[in-house]
């Protein structure tokens, strides 16, 4: 059921930066939108995501669904191996749409989708190996470069275990690669072993890739409707296009508002949710904005909290700590389930004033009360309202954040589509591990230890 689209409310910002100040960024925002459309600024070779929703073909979706079906029919567990942009989008969408207790429920309808390749923890990988020992499992190996250490290491273990447990022939059917068309070890292995593979387009960077097979295949394997997800993204592509007037364009207004706040000393944006399922949506958003904007010694620091849980930990800092923050609240208008507070004869906990009310009403009052308290405490608040958690609105939210990020990065004056800073740790790690080709760096780094 489609209700209103997601919407943005900036009323609780305007006592900190005026509406006029926000609207004064219109020329920069429109120039950024124009640059994205025309592809004439740095990063223009990574704009494949911009009109991705409207260019996804029915055949492509059907191909993804068919491969998902093969995995669903042949696996109890599917391990998605990937990191960063090759991991967070799928996890965010799957968790947002799943039952909170999905990991504990075995309904035999959907394979369990679990994740690996996003850490180098010996305990994690060895506990994963143990967990998979008696399982009919498959693997989706996702790496654009095909050379990322975390993912390649996990895949090496998973491939061997899958072949040992299920035999090479079955393994070649239940291992799928999502990688570059020609480059990288993941491509070489996929071609050699005859895995079904999908291509990550050259012009789509990792953190903008959730609407490619990188996100769509794991989401389809988990049993969710990828047509509806793409439809939602298509809707937002229309609603946030440069043809939509600035004040009605929620991506343009979000980009302008956060840049106006940043210019006024609000250096940290906290993405707030009131639904535990949205934890990984925040993780995905943090990567999208952090990797896109944090460069040249500039950029809002993207942080996140899960309320009301974190009101009992980070709430104190947000209410009374350094006043360099603003919040963007993801507000889900309608829950998917219904539960009311029961009445209790003894009323020992004093909660009978809530009897008969929906739990969501209590949550909503916590949300409204918190917003006002934080605004009173000096924290500007934006609210993004999402009618209900389903595939369509998550699709809208994904594209909204992506296009707003592209606009915001260009308004800030950086190239939002590169990530030169992530190479530094890799160089040191390889030098410390004596990777061939790093002999000079190895010597230099050891001298510094
Ligand atoms: O957004 C990005 O580009 C990164 O986060 C990458 O997605 C991440 O480093 C994984 O890279 P790859 O897909 O090449 O393994």
* CATH level 4 superfamily of the largest domain: Glucose-6-phosphate isomerase like protein, domain 1
Write out the strand line-up for the largest beta sheet, numbering strands in chain order.
1-10-9-7-8
CATH topology of the largest domain: Rossmann fold
Q: How many domain regions?
A: 2
Annotation field: number of helices: 18
Summary keywords:
Rossmann fold, single chain, 449 residues, binds 5-phosphoarabinonic acid, five-stranded mixed β-sheet
Outline the secondary-structure elements.
Blueprint: E1 7-9, H1 19-23, H2 26-38, H3 52-55, H4 58-74, E2 77-81, H5 88-97, E3 112-116, H6 122-132, E4 137-143, H7 149-166, H8 168-174, E5 175-179, H9 185-193, E6 196-199, H10 213-221, H11 226-239, H12 250-263, E7 268-273, H13 279-293, E8 301-306, H14 315-320, E9 325-334, H15 359-376, E10 381-388, H16 391-412, H17 423-432, H18 439-448
Parallel strand pairs: 2-3, 2-4, 4-5, 5-6, 7-8, 7-9, 9-10
Antiparallel strand pairs: 1-10
Helix pairs in contact: 2-16, 4-10, 5-10, 5-13, 7-8, 11-16, 12-16, 13-16, 17-18
Bound molecules: 5-phosphoarabinonic acid.
Task: Provide a brief overview of the structure.
The protein is α/β, with parallel strands linked by helices.
Polypeptide structure, described:
- The protein has 18 helices and 10 strands.
- It is an alpha/beta fold and 449 residues long.
- The chain folds into 2 domains: 7-40 and 231-420, Rossmann fold, CATH 3.40.50.10490; 52-224, Rossmann fold, CATH 3.40.50.
- The strands form 2 sheets. The chain has a 5-stranded mixed sheet, with helices on both faces.
- Strand 9 (325-334), helix 15 (359-376) and strand 10 (381-388) form a beta-alpha-beta unit.
- It is globular, with a radius of gyration of 23 Å.
- The termini are far apart.
- The structure holds 5-phosphoarabinonic acid (PA5).
